[in-house]
Design goal:
Elements lengths: L6 E6 L7 E2 L6 E2 L3 H7 L9 E6 L11 H14 L5 E5 L5 H11 E2 L5 E4 L12 H13 L12 E5 L2 E4 L4 E2 L8 E2 L7 E3 L3 E3 L14 E2 L7 E5 L6 H8 L6 E6 L9 H12 L3 E6 L12 H8 L3 E2 L5 H13 L4 H8 L12
Parallel strand pairs: 1-4, 1-5, 5-7, 7-8, 15-16, 16-17, 17-18
Antiparallel strand pairs: 2-3, 6-14, 8-9, 9-12, 10-11, 12-13
Helix pairs in contact: 2-3, 3-8, 5-6, 8-9
Length: 347
């Protein structure tokens, strides 16, 4: 803490929100907090201590890698005891991947980590970045009467909605409502006031310190099934050297074609220790492999359910668990366990 006022660390990684339009030349300039204060003077009205950290050079979100997730986690860890909350300015294209990854990396998180961005640069008359930034900072600083954080989670705030990071996916490249959480309701909504939904927000164990994990294993692949997919394609994927896990995007509630060669390839990969996780191609809903024969065959072949995981979450969770060098059976168990509120499982 830097004083009695709430303190927030603003971390700029890159993305549209940090590109400031020069009103005189029309050129886009890189992030500079002094410029930002000129464009968003409302920030001065907060009785907050706001400090900034900028990636140099900024990273286009299309170039985001696990290395950058590690950098973010280290910045948060080093500053964890000095700030009440963190706001990460990030490009929208891979924001859901970063939010999902951080939700697993920051074990026992008890402070807000709010990712936000914009579809239009700051300084443009119709920018969405201004409101996204102001509200994200306010959420990051929000405390309960007992002094604990209102939202001790990794979240994405965008276009009035506060969403659990590992439940979120980008749905629109043009409109301001760029993100959606189909399988878990929003944690809060901003209108005239910011209204939080306390029952939906995860409660940390305040007796446990923050534990940060850094290692990822990227020997994973996402395979989307489609009518007419060729045996040679799936064979080449499942027999890739060093492959450790597959996110299999199936039809409906977790169904796949009833082809003997497909099941044989899955069994063969499973016997080699390749972890295959089944998620649906549908935007909302959950995998239920027991419902139809076309799903049961996958279950019997060793495929595990990803329940209602987003593709971003299933992928980063696998990379994270593989990076911890856990036994295969333990990874399979944890993929079927909600460790950061990322899947819905009936108890």
């Amino acid at each position: 803490m830097t004083g009695t006022a709430p303190s927030v660390l603003l971390i700029y990684t890159g993305g549209t929100i940090g590109m400031i339009e020069n009103p005189e030349t029309g050129a886009l300039e890189s992030f500079n907090f002094d410029h930002l204060l000129k464009l968003v003077p409302e920030l001065k009205r907060f009785n907050y201590d706001i400090n900034t950290y900028s990636f140099d050079p900024p990273i286009d979100s299309s170039d985001m890698e696990p290395y950058h997730w590690e950098r973010l986690a280290r910045i948060i860890e080093r500053n964890y005891d000095h700030y009440d909350g963190f706001v990460v300015l990030h490009g929208t294209d891979t924001m859901a991947y970063t939010a999902s990854a951080l939700s697993f990396m920051l074990e026992n998180l008890a402070k807000p980590v709010i990712l936000t961005g914009s579809q239009l640069p700051m300084g443009m008359l119709r920018t969405d970045g201004k409101e996204n930034l102001i509200t994200s900072i306010e959420i990051a600083a929000a405390k309960n009467p007992d002094g604990t954080a209102v939202v001790p989670e990794v979240c994405i705030y965008f276009e009035s909605d506060l969403l659990r990071g590992n439940r979120t996916t980008k749905i629109n490249a043009e409109k301001f409502n760029a993100f959606k959480s189909y399988n878990y309701p929003c944690l809060g909504h901003s209108g005239i006031d910011i209204k939080f939904m306390p029952r939906r927000i995860r409660k940390p164990n305040v007796n446990q310190p923050l534990k940060v994990h850094y290692l990822f294993d990227t020997n994973v692949v996402v395979l989307t099934l489609f009518p007419g997919i060729q045996e040679s394609i799936i064979t080449s994927v499942f027999r890739m050297p060093h492959l450790k896990a597959v996110v299999l995007k199936t039809f409906g509630s977790g169904n796949a074609p009833q082809k003997t060669w497909l099941i044989d390839l899955i069994k063969e990969a499973n016997e080699r220790g390749v972890i295959i996780v089944n998620i649906t191609q549908c935007q909302s809903g959950s995998v239920e492999m027991e419902r139809y024969e076309t799903g049961r065959q996958l279950l019997e072949a060793g495929v595990i359910s990803g329940y209602d995981s987003t593709p971003e979450c299933a992928l980063t969770k696998l990379m994270f668990l593989l990076g911890q060098n856990l036994p295969t059976e333990e990874i399979r168990r944890l993929m079927k366990t909600s460790i950061a509120g990322e899947i819905s499982i009936e108890e």
